[in-house]
Design a protein that fits this description.
Blueprint lengths: L6 H21 L9 H13 L5 E2 L12 E4 L2 E3 L13 E10 L2 E10 L5 H19 L7 H14 L3 E2 L4 E4 L6 E6 L15 E4 L2 E3 L5 E3 L6 E3 L5 E3 L2 E6 L2 E4 L12
Antiparallel strand pairs: 1-4, 2-4, 3-12, 4-5, 6-10, 7-8, 7-9, 9-14, 10-13, 11-12, 14-15
Helix pairs in contact: 1-2, 3-4
């Protein structure tokens, strides 16, 4: 069942979204060669909890051990923070969920580690543009398929592959709610977008194959061919005025993506 949110409930979700937006800005200064993913996870945990009442929504979710998901290079999503250190030329996605006052918000950003090669730079740029295109398609009266079609058309035109077996989702009282929001699709198909829907829209794009597998840790999803993958995400409310990004800072500082 799709749960439609009132304006008041959307504002509550946006409260946690601001925490995430500010955290993603802070991470830009901390994603450097030599930093371990465990160090980044500890920073994220402390940053979130320093905001009164906020807790990491992913900590313990379905048994996940980290406070955030940190995925490097060929890791698409759900990377477990560890002693692994980042190296020059890596790309690393940080997926953050926050629960505040009983409401969840969700966002992700993929960072370059130092200087990256041209392919990685193009992958990051394209995936960010895929998120922008997906949000532009998230207008009242459109369909979920319009969102996926926007991602797929842009990514494939740029020579990249869309990860097909992972999807975005509704978000609200729970991290994962209906509907599913695939990153591939056909315009005009799928559930119609209604006022009050809140969606986690999250393109995941690979420089090689779209095929994926899960590692023995039962969490980390990687590309089968070892190609690098980027992941960008925002929590977006469907409103009469157009799509509203809830995981952006309300201040003068602009957020990643």
């Amino acid at each position: 069942m799709i749960h439609l949110k009132s304006r008041r409930e959307i504002e509550a979700i946006a409260g946690g979204g601001v925490v995430i937006a500010r955290l993603l800005i802070e991470l830009e200064r901390r994603v450097d060669p030599g930093v371990s993913t465990a160090e980044l996870d500890r920073f994220c945990d402390g940053f979130i909890r320093d905001h009164d009442g906020a807790v990491p929504a992913f900590k313990g979710l379905y048994g996940f051990p980290g406070s955030v998901c940190i995925s490097v290079n060929e890791e698409v999503v759900h990377g477990i923070p560890s002693r692994r250190t980042l190296r020059e030329g890596d790309i690393v996605s940080v997926d953050v969920g926050v629960r505040l006052d009983g409401w969840c918000s969700d966002s992700a950003f993929t960072y370059p580690v130092g200087e990256v090669d041209a392919e990685a730079s193009a992958l990051l740029s394209t995936t960010r543009r895929c998120l922008d295109a997906a949000i532009d398609a998230a207008h009242l009266g459109n369909h979920v398929g319009d969102i996926g079609a926007a991602v797929q058309d842009l990514a494939e035109a740029a020579g990249f592959s869309v990860i097909r077996d992972l999807v975005g989702h509704g978000v609200g009282r729970d991290v994962h709610e209906e509907p599913q929001v695939p990153n591939v699709g056909k315009a005009g198909y799928g559930p119609r977008l209604q006022e009050g829907m809140v969606l986690a829209i999250e393109p995941m794009v690979s420089s090689g194959s779209h095929e994926i597998r899960t590692l023995e840790d039962r969490w980390t999803v990687v590309t089968v061919d070892g190609s690098r993958s980027a992941h960008f995400e925002h929590t977006v409310a469907i409103t009469r005025e157009g799509p509203r990004i809830l995981t952006k800072s309300r201040g003068t500082v602009t957020t990643p993506a």
